[in-house]
Amino acid sequence: MTVWSWLRLAVCLWLLRKAFRLARWLPLLAVAIAAWPVTIVAAAGYIAAWLRGWPPARLYRTAVGFLPFTALWLGLEWDRQGSWTGIGPAVAGAWGRGWSDRNVPGETRAFLLVSLAAIPAGLALAGLAWSWRNYAVNSGIGGWLASAPVTFDARQWKRQVRAATGRCAAPGSVPLLARGGRIPVGGTIRAIGHRWHPVFGVPYTACARHMVVVGATGSGKTNLMMRLWAGWFTAALAAAHAGRGRPPLLVVLDCKGGRDARVKADRTRRLLYAAGPGGWRSGPTRPGCPYGSCRRPTWPSCSTR
Ligand SMILES: Nc1ncnc2c1ncn2[C@@H]1O[C@H](COP(=O)(O)OP(=O)(O)OP(=O)(O)O)[C@@H](O)[C@H]1O
Ligand SMILES: [Mg+2]
Q: Would the CB of 217 count as within 6 Å of ligand 1?
């Protein structure tokens, strides 16, 4: 055997191996093309999760959030057609029209007709694919280089920080106090061992327990504490007015001091008065109001009850 013929044999074997590998993906590709509305949603969901650094759970939750609309649509279709059996052919017909009307309005119409089924299915698929990608890279079975898990994690971290920063900057997304007496702290970058929420919040009752804030110099510890104080004071005051618990008492001792201590103290005072007692409006005092005898204007709820 000459070197040339050996080389040709090796190249042919390599091409055959690659062809077999590709052939394994062909049925999947055919299914992806056939179910194009689902594929489009799945691709969009996957890219969004990748760009924003979302955990797969966010895609699953969004898919579940769509299910009531799907159920409503199924109910309306059932009501219109009088049976469940007609819904499948109706969806298949809408999908088929997308193949026959090969223009933008026709395909848009077909997509919209099947969207209430395609969106949850696509998002769930995107969640599965994104979950698999994370698992594959982190476990070392995906990626070209040995450093792939580290590079992937560092890039995802950057994207997650960018997304969390954007969330904090969006007006109203991180209010002083959220529903259920939770104090929003800021956009969540990453949650480990806990359920991921776009905005991390602590229940105001947690502030009455021991708490430690750890961070590098200038990382925002004091600002965070000011936010927690204001949120806690507002929530505790509202609870006291609702007859749940005693009126709040907040004593702050600045043991660090420093040049900016007075500026920070002044900012804290202004924030607390704006959020808590200073936010009161004058009005008739509710009987039993813990602040009934104080000289400050009354809490808004006093004027309404
Ligand atoms: N959530 C935030 N968004 C934007 N800027 C912030 C945020 N929190 C703090 N900062 C800014 O970061 C700087 C430092 O904040 P802060 O004084 O709270 O940090 P610190 O950790 O208490 O610092 P030190 O260790 O010196 O006490 C301030 O200029 C503040 O305005
Ligand atoms: Mg500080």
A: yes
Q: Is the CB of 215 under 6 A from ligand 1?
A: yes
**Sheet strands (E) in 74-190:** 182-187
Q: Compute φ and ψ for 150, nearest 5 degrees.
A: -70, -45
d(CA 224, CA 247): 23
Cβ-proximal residues to 136 (8 Å cutoff; 6+ apart), any chain = 142, 143
Q: Distance from CA of residue 252 to its chain's centroid?
A: 34
Q: Which pLDDT score, from 0 to 100, does residue 288 have?
A: 52
Alpha-carbon span 74 to 76, nearest angstrom: 5
**Residue ranges for the chain with pLDDT beneath 70:** 276-305
| CB-CB neighbours of 236 under 10 Å | 23
Look at residue 216 in the predicted model and tell me its pLDDT: 93
Domain boundaries, the chain: 25-169, 179-304
Indicate which atom in ligand 1 lies nearest the CA of residue 186: 1
User: 153-174 burial, b if ≥16 CB within 10 A, otherwise e?
Assistant: eeebeebbeebbeebeeeeeeb
In sign, the C-alpha dihedral spanning 31, 32, 36, 41 is positive
pTM: 0.72
Strands annotated E in the chain: 182-187, 199-203
298 DSSP 8-state letter: P
